[in-house]
Design goal:
Distance between the termini: 47 Å
Radius of gyration: 19 Å
CATH architecture: Orthogonal Bundle
Number of strands: 0
Structural class: mainly alpha
Shape: globular
CATH superfamily: ABC transporter involved in vitamin B12 uptake, BtuC
């Protein structure tokens, strides 16, 4: 079954969607879309280091993304700039540095488009193993820290008063973000990873009656986006990564239609 490149693409895409959906809910709740962009832009620097030092791509992207996350935490404590300014500084600096490093590597032929927009049709069995192993770890850790992470998201001061450690939970959350970006880069690329984290979660928010339900629905909408995007890519011969994001956007726009709005209201009344 895995000899078919399209089957491998579906399996890999579904794996990423199942992980990105629940994690994306916290990005939506915390309004951290720009933080997701920062880590995804930093991923290109990880790609450059992977090629320069001939190391595993996923590992290099994770190390760079995690380093940028920790650098943000340190700068927030010492610098006088606002968080969004620091995110902009780190995002564009990492992206520019990655492009410069790639430009100096004249002995390596780099398909920059595949890194920017993904090449899910080229995933290997090893890539799938990394996605599901890493995804399983991410979901396992997320389940373990769900309550303190959600409490720190709603009210950090109250969570600290209840004996939790919001700073430590935030560090773990940032490392989870770095991991999901590292395992997703081949699927939708550097520029579209954040879209796969945010759009399914934003769509799920229209239907969910609670945080856990929203996490499950975000994964479901992510899977539907992968299936629809890959199907459209195969039918119309369009780029696979952008097609997945377009499918996710279509699902979000559909959730805004009057018919869906009536369905949501009727569901809420029936539960009341």
């Amino acid at each position: 079954m895995l000899d078919d490149f399209f089957t491998r693409a579906i399996i890999a895409g579904v794996g990423v969607a199942l992980v990105a959906g629940p994690l994306g809910c916290f990005i939506v709740w915390r309004r951290l879309a720009y933080f997701g962009d920062t880590l995804s832009h930093a991923a290109l620097l990880g790609v450059a280091f992977a090629l320069l030092f001939d190391v595993n791509l996923t590992l290099a992207v994770f190390v760079v993304a995690a380093s940028v996350s920790l650098a943000l935490l340190m700068l927030q404590r010492r610098a006088t700039l606002s968080s969004d300014s620091l995110l902009g500084l780190l995002a564009h600096s990492a992206l520019a540095l990655g492009l410069v490093v790639l430009a100096f590597m004249t002995w390596v032929r780099v398909d920059l488009m595949s890194f920017l927009f993904g090449d899910i049709l080229a995933v290997s069995v090893m890539d799938i193993a990394i996605i599901y192993a890493g995804g399983g770890i991410i979901l396992g850790v997320l389940v373990m820290i769900w309550h303190p992470l959600f409490a720190a998201t709603v009210n950090p001061e109250l969570a600290e008063a209840e004996g939790m450690n919001p700073d430590r939970i935030n560090v773990i959350f940032m490392l989870l973000m770095a991991t999901v970006i590292a395992i997703s880069i081949k699927i939708v690329g550097v520029l579209l990873i954040t879209a796969m984290l945010i759009i399914p979660a934003a769509t799920a928010r229209r239907f969910a009656q609670g945080p856990e339900q929203m996490a499950v629905l975000a994964a479901v909408f992510g899977v539907l986006a992968v299936l629809g995007g890959l199907g459209g890519s195969l039918h119309w011969d369009t780029p696979s990564g952008p097609s997945i994001v377009v499918a996710a956007t279509v699902l979000f726009l559909f959730s805004l239609t009057p018919l869906v709005r009536v369905f949501i209201k009727s569901g809420a009344r029936s539960k009341a």
